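## Example record

The block below lists the input lines for one assembly entry, exactly as stored, with component labels intact.
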Amino acid sequence: MLRVDRISKIYRVGTFGGKELHAVSDISFTIKDGECVSLIGESGSGKTTIGKMVLRLVSISSGVITLDGVDISSLEGGALKAYYRKVQGVFQDPFSSLNPVFKADRIFQIIQEQFYPDIDSQTWQGRVEKTLRDVGLNPEHVLNKFPHQLSGGQLQRFLIARALLLDIKFLVADEIISMLDASTRIDVLNLLAELKQRGLSILFITHDLSLANYISERAVILYRGCIAEMGVTEKIFQQPRHPYTQMLIASVPRLDQKWSSATTASSTVAQIGYQHGCPYLDRCPLAFEKCKKRPDLVEIEPDYHVACWKVSDNHR
Amino acid sequence: MSLQIENLTVHYQTLRGDVHALESSTFNVRDGEIMGLAGESGCGKTTLAHALIALAPPMKFVGGRVLLDGEEMPIWDTEKMNDFRFQKISIIPQYAMNAMNPIRKIGKMVEELLKSKKVNPKSVMADMNMKLDLVKLPHEVLGMYPIELSGGMKQRMVMVISTLLNPSLLIADEITSALDVASQKAVAEMLVMFRDQGCCKSAIVITHDISILYQIADTIMIMYAGQLAEKAATKTIINSPRHPYTKLLISSLPQIGVKYVENQLTGIPGKPPLLLHPPEGCCFRERCPVAFEQCSQVPPFIEIDKDHYVACWREVGSNA
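Predicted structure tokens for the full assembly:
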């Protein structure tokens, strides 16, 4: 189980790092074994930062992330390597994840050299081919090729195969399908769902709500680095409580109904360094006096949290 | 008819031969029509847009005619096209985030752009302010640098600049794909507003996201591997598509409310053919579930119903 406990990330920005940007503030959630949790938010909501903190690619400003009870920020050397055996990430752009100068299957060799030096290359080759078949690729078609000779969907599955070779327990999938075409997108999504059924936990980062709903059991809606709403995906989608989630779900383009004519609050100039008040204050149609104080994340139903004064006041 | 395209063929020149990116395409866009253009990556939709606005090497004009408001456009001549570009036909580029000069204030940049087109900046100032109001940007943005705006705001600013001279045809190339859902909706609705206000006569909206087109487009054209597959009114394409590719494409879209555990969607098996040496006949033949012998010939793009064009032998047969 992965537990994220009150983590924050503050970036220093501006000339000489004089200003602070709160990319993630005070976020807690857990991902159980074999569960898929979606992190949903607009660009700049801090979703990728959280993924990178789980992967130890950026440091945590405050708070702890634990995997099965072990604090990951203290891991070093061998322990960190053991962590990467269990936790891996796949990112948005498959082309920039690979070195264009080398053949794409070099990533498998590196895995062997680094993690399985005892296995002879014959056995390893067999294992690579089996994993590639598992992710729905034909090894003859994809091995011994350069990244530019493969399509985006193929490369994305290639990178998932790389993660699977390590016998991982946890996958951070950061916008892995937003670059793919509609016709191949659903195949990669189905692959993730299949892996989940075999016991893999997934942190699925996306801005596309319909994809999140398709695959995940629980969802966390982020806005400007704060959790707006968190709970079972179905509940959030059928009856969103937070005004931000309501606006998001209303803006998703659908094939069965047209957009309602209600105007969408368009984003304004980003604010740096604001500390107080609800982060959604300037766009919220329901804002009132109390919203100048930041709302707490309140559990209004078992395992269903909302951070909005309107909702929590009505609840009481 | 605002835009008429006849047999337009555009190839890319490479050392290994020509890539057939766009094969004899014939279609019309009416005045006031927002036409959505959809398809997988590499299907030729961006090639079509770029051929209309700036046909530069390695693109090669092979044949065909383009008429805008009854006047033939010399799209093979980059120099002569200068008279049309920005004034008659304008584009909102794919990466609008990087479309503005980062070291000029936006207002200054627009002024220089207008001067290069020999337009007095003062004469369009009122129009410009009206359009800024339309996209809900404060007038102060003209005194700001592009870096000070968010992605969605830059996108809206570029929309204003592109339509400054009220072009006949506006091409919007993947303008919503880099934005999140809320800004996506705002930008898409503004595009419709621009058409309604007469800032552009008609528009071609290129995207791979069909659900956006369903919201804003009047007609949708589907392309596959450099050829036109189907064109019809938006409702017809979504509710009763006739081309097998369109059918598969629409059924593979995840909808809100669909869950993996309840209803597993399937993709389209196989992948598009390479266009360096395109296969003979219908290019969708290899992946098509209903292909038969006649598909070894190129199917004609014919009107099977009023304003419903399909390129599929199955439909030719059923109609004859």
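Confidence is low (pLDDT under 50) at residues 267-273 of chain A. The longest strand of chain A covers residues 19-31.
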